[in-house]
Amino acid sequence: xxxxxxxxxxxxxxxxxxxxxxxxxxxxxxxxxxxxxxxxxxxxxxxxxxxxxxxxxxxxxxxxxxxxxxxxxxxxxxxxxxxxxxxxxxxxxxxxxxxxxxxxxxxxxxxxxxxxxxxxxxxxxxxxxxxxxxxxxxxxxxxxxxxxxxxxxxxxxxxxxxxxxxxxxxxxxxxxxxxxxxxxxxxxxxxxxxxxxxxxxxxxxxxxxxxxxxxxxxxxxxxxxxxxxxxxxxxxxxxxxxxxxxxxxxxxxxxxxxxxxxxxxxxxxxxxxxxxxxxxxxxxxxxxxxxxxxxxxxxxxxxxxxxxxxxxxxxxxxxxxxxxxxxxxxxxxxxxxxxxxxxxxxxxxxxxxxxxxxxxxxxxxxxxxxxxxxxxxxxxxxxxxxxxxxxxxxxxxxxxxxxxxxxxxxxxxxxxxxxxxxxxxxxxxxxxxxxxxxxxxxxxxxxxxxxxxxxxxxxxxxxxxxxxxxxxxxxxxxxx
Length: 480
What we know:
Elements: E1 2-7, H1 11-20, E2 27-30, E3 47-48, H2 59-78, E4 82-83, E5 87-91, H3 97-110, E6 116-119, H4 120-126, E7 136-140, E8 144-146, H5 148-161, E9 165-167, E10 172-178, E11 181-186, E12 189-198, H6 204-211, E13 218-228, E14 239-242, E15 252-255, E16 261-264, E17 268-269, H7 280-290, E18 302-313, E19 319-322, E20 329-333, H8 339-358, H9 381-390, E21 397-399, E22 404-405, H10 406-414, H11 422-429, H12 442-453
Helix pairs in contact: 1-5, 1-8, 2-8, 10-11, 10-12
């Protein structure tokens, strides 16, 4: 019998887990993926929104602004890269300036600070590559960029260190009310819990609808992106949006905390909750629409494309709190944009509800800080040589594009909730995220995983499940 079971190990589920780990409670996180950050949280714009776009009085508005304000301290505690670079929402017609002023007024009512409209001359100083047709923009200085992988993994690792359990590669198939609370059935067995947190992303409607008469409906919205090589670093300095529509803020262009440039997304509602394949038409759309805000984007520097799914609930707002007809079942559903920005606040809010529900007391000795994997390239030459003298693995470069050492990969595998796949390593230390997209380093990373995990090469996957890379062996024993 657990006090709390959290379904979903994305950024929301891990934020709730980390907050609950501050209390004397038995907490388990269950996720169908082989790693944390395996669903919606792994593929988004990596932006911390300021909070001007959400309609006044909505949960999106409230938790976006609150989560944005919490981000600096949280990232300091968990050693997560975060930069407040500001955002610009551009318009291409003098008549649209009134829309910018409406957004500014809405943002100020939401509690966003520092909003102002900037015009062409100042805009060119801020963004020299702004498109010729842009006449003005709403500047939001509190907007920022973050690494969503690093944030989710950091929240999970810190929660784990503070006693939260994680059961991965485990799909929830049924939730039932029982006298003691709830029974959760999975492919690997049954679990009893006093309370449930539904943070299942695009599947949150299915979890809710098993237990509540108040049905919710989530329609996955696919967003396609392209990623530019770090040789294009500095082409844009801020996150550049277009005027919002019902489908979002259009195609954006933004730097990432790692020095790349990301462009996207599209907005396509689909039926398949696992369909993240990109298409040539979608990529062409991203490139064409980016020209509305940024001119001459160096698209020859594109190194990869990808797509993510947003959990769009038909009510168009977050669904948070205890289900009215299912006591002890707490929803964190419909968490689309600005979900990443809102995650710290949603985690704190949901944990506070459960604390009150179960009369939890604060834990002695809560560990608030966590250190990320050491990156030798950030050390001085003397410090690096000293490190290699103690740990020779830090002297072996495995990923040339990102200068990732064997020592970093070993740390990624050995730490709490360590990597078990190529993508698990990639999201922790960026091996395979560079220009060659793993073409050089993947076999070496696989060798390290085999050695460290003590499993055959045929068991190594790209991202868990059936994503095996080696499917057999040739007659002479070589990997096929």
